[in-house]
Amino acid sequence: MPSLESSIDRLYQEPLDGFVAARTALAKTLSGAEAKRVRALQKPTAVPWAVNQLYWHARPVYDRLIKSGGALRAAQISALGGRAADVRGAADAHRKAIAGAVAEAVRLAASVGVNPGADALSQTLEVLSLAPTPAESAGRLIQPLRPAGFEALAGVTVKAPVHAASRPEPAPEKKTVGTKSPAPRLVDDARAREKKEAAERQKNAEIKKAEATLARAQSAEAAARDEWERRKREVDAAEKALDRIRRP
Questions:
Q1: Is position 81 within any domain?
Q2: Alpha-carbon distance 25 to 31, whole Å?
Q3: Does a structural domain hold residue 163?
Q4: Which residues lie closer than 8 Å to 46 by C-beta, 6 or more apart?
Q5: Are residues 123 and 216 located together in one domain of the fold?
Q6: Is 209 found in the same domain as 142?
Q7: Residues 125, 104: one domain?
Q8: Could you please report the per-residue DSSP string of 132-168?
Q9: Does 156 map to a domain?
């Protein structure tokens, strides 16, 4: 007899319009807390349902997306930590993986008459792939996911630029008879340096945030372009079929 977890997994592989009936049927085979748990399972909306189908029926595509997301996150963290990293290359690879995953999820959904939005699909897949840890709900999503944005990298120390960190301290001026102590001016200089270095760190963080935003936008654009091209091919095919039927 299959375990309850495997039965629930199969429930989330059901066609979207058959979820409620399948959930009811499964609950009737159970009793007590298990039956109550199954009856409480929520029906997914179209976008998470399509992502679930990608997980269950196109695992290589799903795994490739998760791997590319992990590589991009690692590159971003390395760059924020002051280490060399090919963030642009990782972003390009991740964008292609998202576009491929969106196209496959749309194909799986369309085969049973479900039409999830490409943008929402892209966003949910991006959130899944950039998460610090694997999603516990993989294959059982019920709602679209919202991006955490740059703050998902919170806790990573942003190092100051090398030129700022290695800047030599100014040599103290020699004290001469009749001049005031240089201590106040040195304090002002130190404060000015700290302020400038803080501004440079803030600028660096803003650049990384903008790069992350650009990567998301490019991913969404690629997914939308792929979807448009697929729809255009469908229209062309339909027009050709109609033309053949109309011919005498």
A1: yes
A2: 12
A3: no
A4: 16, 109, 114, 115, 116, 117
A5: yes
A6: yes
A7: yes
A8: SS--TTTT---S-----GGGGGTTPPPPPPHHHHTPP
A9: no
Angle between the N-to-C axes of helices 118-130 and 87-110, in degrees from 0 to 180, rounded to the nearest 10: 130
Calculate helix-pair angle for 59-80, 87-110, nearest 10 degrees: 150
Give pLDDT, residue 156.
45
Whole-structure pTM value = 0.58
Which of 127, 122, 134, 124 lies closest to 96 in space, CA to CA?
Answer: 122
Residue 159 lies in a domain: no
- Type of residue numbered 239: E
Could you tell me the two tokens for 111? 């085969």
* Whole-number Cα distances in Å, 189 to 61, 161, 169, 198: 56, 19, 10, 14
Q: Can you read off the two tokens belonging to residue 68?
A: 């590319």
CB 135 within 8 A of CB 149: no
Question: What are the Cα distances from residue 54, in Å, to 112, 135, 240?
Answer: 14, 14, 31
User: What's the gap between Cα 18 and its chain centre?
Assistant: 29
Residue 5, both tokens: 């977890």
Structure confidence by residue, pLDDT tens digits, 25-82:
999 999 999 999 999 999 999 999 999 999 999 999 999 999 999 999 888 888 888 7
Same domain for 122 and 24: no
Give the separation between CA 92 and CA 18, rounded to whole angstroms: 38
Instruction: Report how many helices (DSSP H) and strands (DSSP E) the chain contains, helices first.
Output: 9, 0
Q: 21: domain range?
A: 4-39
